[in-house]
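User: I've been trying to design a sequence by hand for this structure and keep getting stuck. Would you show me what you'd pick, starting by listing the structure so we're on the same page?

Assistant: Good idea, let's start from the same input. This is the structure you sent:
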C-alpha cells in the first residue's frame, strides 16, 4: 500500500484483516520509497493514493516497468476518469466504505485467480525454444543455451553461442518467464547458472562470477546473499 497518511494506512490495514486472501507485504508513504519497495518485493496488488508529497500516484506508475493490479484510494473523485487511463482495477474514495470495499474484493479474487493461471501457463522451461530477431537476423534457440541477459538502455542483449543480439524487452519482462537455471545477479544482468566457470569473493560482500565464455559479472550484495542461500551445500 502506498499512502502518505499513516491514519489512512491503519484504516486500510484494519479493513484488510477481514480478507485473509490478501497479505500486506509492504507499505510506503511516498513515491520514492514505494518505487524501490515495489521493485524489491514485486507485489501482485497495489493500493495506491494519488495526492502525495513530491510525486503523485500516476507518476509512480509511469516509473514502473511492470505495473501490478492497481486499486486507487483517494479522497478526491475528480481523478476517477484519469485513473482508468492507467488500467486501474478500481477507484475507492476515502474514508473507505467497508461495503464498497467488499464489492471490490469480490470482483478482485476471481480476477487474481485467472491472472495467476495465465502467468503459470506462460512460464518457460529450459528446453523451450524461443525466437529472437535483430534486424534481418533470426534465431530459434533453446533457452538453456543462453548464457547471459544484459540491460543495454531500453534493450536487452542476449548472449548465446557466438551471438549477442539486442531485443526490445526489459530485463523485468524477461525474468518473469525464466526457469530456475537463471539467476539475476544484479539489476543489469541475469546469468545461466549452468554456464558458471568460477565464483570468487569480491569487495563489500559481493561475488565475482566468471562464465564459461569468459565474461565476468559482479553480483549486488543482496543477490550475493541470495546466491549463497540457494546454492551453498
Amino acid at each position: 500500500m502506498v499512502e502518505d497518511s499513516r491514519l489512512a494506512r491503519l484504516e486500510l490495514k484494519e479493513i484488510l484483516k477481514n480478507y485473509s486472501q490478501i497479505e500486506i507485504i509492504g507499505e510506503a508513504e511516498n513515491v520514492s520509497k514505494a518505487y524501490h519497495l515495489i521493485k524489491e518485493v514485486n507485489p501482485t496488488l497495489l493500493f495506491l493514493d494519488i495526492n502525495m508529497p513530491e510525486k503523485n500516484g500516476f507518476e509512480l506508475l509511469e516509473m514502473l516497468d511492470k505495473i501490478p493490479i492497481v486499486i486507487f484510494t483517494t479522497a478526491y473523485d475528480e481523478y476517477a476518469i484519469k485513473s482508468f487511463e492507467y488500467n486501474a482495477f478500481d477507484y475507492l474514495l476515502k474514508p473507505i466504505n467497508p461495503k464498497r470495499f467488499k464489492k471490490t474484493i469480490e470482483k478482485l479474487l476471481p480476477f487474481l485467480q485467472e491472472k495467476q493461471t495465465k502467468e503459470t501457463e506462460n512460464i518457460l522451461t529450459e528446453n523451450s525454444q524461443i525466437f529472437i530477431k535483430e534486424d534481418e537476423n533470426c534465431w530459434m534457440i533453446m533457452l538453456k543455451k543462453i548464457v547471459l541477459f544484459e540491460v543495454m538502455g531500453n534493450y536487452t542483449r542476449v548472449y548465446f553461442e557466438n551471438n549477442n543480439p539486442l531485443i526490445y524487452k526489459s530485463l523485468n519482462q524477461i525474468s518473469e518467464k525464466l526457469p530456475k537455471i537463471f539467476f539475476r545477479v544484479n539489476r543489469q544482468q541475469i546469468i545461466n547458472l549452468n554456464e558458471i566457470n568460477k565464483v570468487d569473493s569480491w569487495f563489500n560482500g559481493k561475488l565475482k562470477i566468471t562464465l564459461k565464455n569468459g565474461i565476468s559479472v559482479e553480483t549486488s550484495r543482496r543477490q550475493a546473499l541470495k546466491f549463497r542461500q540457494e546454492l551453498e551445500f
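That's my pick for every position. To get oriented when you compare it with your attempt: The two ends are 37 Å apart (CA to CA). The chain has two domains: 6-121, 129-231.
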